[in-house]
Write a structure and sequence with these properties.
By secondary structure, the protein is α+β, with helices and mostly antiparallel strands. It folds into 2 domains: 234 residues, no CATH class; 53 residues, Type 1 dockerin domain, CATH 1.10.1330. The strands form 2 sheets. Strands 3, 6, 7, 9, 10 and 11 form a 6-stranded antiparallel sheet that branches. β9 and β10 form a beta hairpin. α4 runs antiparallel to α5. The longest helix has 20 residues.
Length: 328
């Protein structure tokens, strides 16, 4: 399956969706507040959650995601991706995500991949019908590399496990619900909960049904030395790195001091997202002072050329699997 084209594979059952000119998909990594009760149940260490959110314009539908992310481990950084009790150890999904769990439940903060239908309609058996996992990422090339994704597992919740998420996944039906008046919509396609002070570089892309076989590489959100990261590389920050430059230093302390005892956002130093920049946020920075993630990865992006003979056979097989899922 190495020659299978990820964008084509995930969109195999969405060919009836017409192309629309100038349709776009944008990706953003958003920090999410973790309820203190849930955080205490997950670990005695720091628990942070981030969501990979997609915003699409009218006429576009997200249908594939590809990412390869490994948490940094060095003498000053340690941690793991949290897999909650209802986490799927094979496909990295949680079919009861969102409305099925209270904010105080650890399951709310599972590490998972998702599709628009998961997020828009988070109840019922239809959630599992349109999520299809086709293998690991071949980034910086475009396409799946194998049929065995590397995902966090419930048995790996320790500093010795759950460091990697390597997966290509898609929406087999191209389903979403637009709610904005201009037809645009936003939803979660992946969530990461990191236990510990570590972070990572998330490398990958999304794809849509309007711009078939066009990878939309993740944007570079880093600053300073991390601003040189290659296209397709997003930064999942280490604990205490407010300005997203890959290091916890005096610059981050200054941000805290400049907003201390004031309402603010993550960028203002509200690291625990409780609405106030205070001693709890300062403690995160001080506890991680002088930590750094190192240089960002640098690589040329791959091409969008599949191997036709292998790709055609694989798409036919995948389309059949998706069809059976819809009838289940």
């Amino acid at each position: 399956m190495r020659g299978v084209h990820a964008l084509g594979a995930a969109g195999a059952a969405t060919t009836l969706v017409g192309s629309v000119a100038k349709a776009t998909i944008s990706v953003n990594l958003v920090p999410v507040a973790v309820d203190p009760t849930a955080a205490a149940a997950i670990s005695t260490n720091t628990v942070r959650t981030f969501q990979l959110k997609v915003t699409q314009s009218a006429g576009e539908k997200w249908n594939v995601g590809s990412m390869k992310v490994t948490l940094a481990t060095n003498p000053k950084l340690a941690g793991y991706f949290y897999a909650s009790p209802n986490h799927d150890n094979t496909l990295a999904r949680n079919t009861n995500f969102n409305n099925a769990f209270a904010a105080t439940s650890p399951d709310k903060y599972d590490t998972f991949v998702s599709t628009p239908h998961f997020d828009v309609t988070p109840t019922g058996t239809s959630q599992a019908a349109n999520l299809n996992v086709v293998g690991t990422s071949d980034f910086p090339n475009v396409g799946p590399a194998t049929n065995t994704p590397v995902v966090p597992t419930t048995s790996g919740n320790s500093n010795a496990g759950n460091q990697t998420l390597d997966i290509v996944w898609g929406d087999s039906q191209g389903v979403n619900a637009t709610t904005a008046t201009d037809g645009s919509t936003s939803y979660v396609v992946a969530q990461f909960t990191v236990v510990g002070n570590t972070g990572a570089f998330i490398r990958g892309y999304s794809g849509g049904t309007a711009a078939t076989n066009t990878p939309l590489f993740f944007p570079n959100n880093g600053t300073g030395v991390l601003a040189t990261a290659s296209q397709g590389t997003a930064y999942l920050p280490i604990r205490g790195d407010i300005n997203l430059d890959g290091a916890v230093d005096q610059n981050d302390i200054n941000v805290i001091l400049g907003h201390f005892s004031k309402a603010g956002t993550f960028a203002d130093g509200d690291l625990n997202l409780d609405g106030l920049v205070d001693q709890n946020d300062l403690n995160q920075v001080v506890g991680s002072f002088t930590n750094g993630i190192g240089s960002p990865p640098s690589q040329a992006l791959g091409s969008l050329v599949p191997e036709p003979s292998i790709c055609g056979l694989a798409l036919a097989g995948l389309a059949g699997i998706m069809g059976r899922r819809r009838k289940a």
